[in-house]
Design a protein that fits this description.
six-stranded antiparallel barrel; single chain; 2 domains; six-stranded antiparallel β-barrel; about 280 residues
Length: about 280
């Protein structure tokens, strides 16, 4: 009994107050004036009623605010999902815009250089590493692609088709160590060969122009283009720009280091073209 009193004192007080109130009502009759004891009990009952009213009101407000908070959390999560969806849609739109810009530059390149375009291609695979030394494209003999055709983009020459199947082909980039292409210096018209620098031990993304005559006036900044010799590549496709001239007297030829016009770390699509003579 003592434990019950310690645990529930407020309940006991309320019960006693109610009993006193009932007793007063039963014994008071129709009196106009309450006794002092009855007044004290009435005041106590009033205080208890106010306390209970405030308690119930606060509890109601608490649960109401809890429901509102839960609703706000749900709305917040919904807005987060919508934001993620909008960001994804924006990324997709940006990617489509960039692709359209690249394709427009390819079309402008074709109109300006007037090669025989065989196919617009997507790169579907590449060799391991950061550079596109060799790559696979999504067009082959069924689309008119054949060995030794050139692959280009709006920046310039990418490489040469080396292997063809019905619906895919392999392309060796001009930066690959096994690549060799006839080229000329646009300003001086000196002929030479462009060879790639990328090997299993070295990957600098550069090319060398070799077999230049000793009396060549080639200088840093000269543009290198395809020569059109051999009836393989169309003439005049940009290859790159000279960044260094190596003039070793003991050699019979001058060598120039060429920075390719194409960014061989970021390739996605291109054109396969052939010369008018081929």
């Amino acid at each position: 009994m003592s434990q019950f009193i310690k645990r529930w004192p407020l309940v006991i007080v309320i019960i006693l107050a109610i009993l006193l109130l009932v007793l007063i009502i039963l014994t008071s009759g129709q009196r106009d004036k309450l006794s002092s004891m009855e007044g004290l009990v009435g005041e106590f009952i009033t205080l208890v009623q106010e306390f209970l009213y405030k308690l119930v009101t606060n509890i109601t407000k608490f649960f109401s605010s809890f429901r509102e908070r839960r609703q706000l959390v749900q709305e917040y999560e919904l807005l987060k999902e919508r934001l993620v969806l909008l960001e994804q849609q924006q990324l997709e739109m940006d990617e489509v815009l960039r692709e359209n810009q690249r394709l427009k530059r390819l079309l402008d390149f074709k109109q300006e250089n007037n090669p025989i375009m065989v196919a617009g291609v997507q790169i579907t695979g590449k060799n391991p590493g950061n550079w596109f030394n060799t790559m696979t494209i999504d067009c082959g003999s069924d689309q008119g692609v054949s060995v030794n055709m050139a692959m280009v983009n709006d920046q310039g020459l990418i490489g040469r088709v080396t292997e063809v199947s019905s619906n895919w082909a392999k392309v060796r980039a001009i930066v690959d160590g096994q690549s060799s292409i006839s080229a000329i210096v646009e300003r001086t018209r000196d002929n030479g060969m462009i060879k790639g620098n990328n090997t299993f031990t070295t990957e600098d993304g550069l090319c060398q122009m070799i077999n230049l005559p000793l009396d060549s006036d080639i200088v840093v900044g000269d543009r290198i283009i395809t020569s059109g010799l051999g009836e393989i590549f169309p003439k005049g496709i940009p290859i790159g720009e000279v960044i260094e001239v190596v003039d070793e007297k003991r050699e019979k030829y001058i060598t120039a280091i060429v920075q390719p016009a194409v960014d061989f770390q970021r390739l996605e699509e291109g054109l396969v073209v052939g010369s008018h003579d081929n």
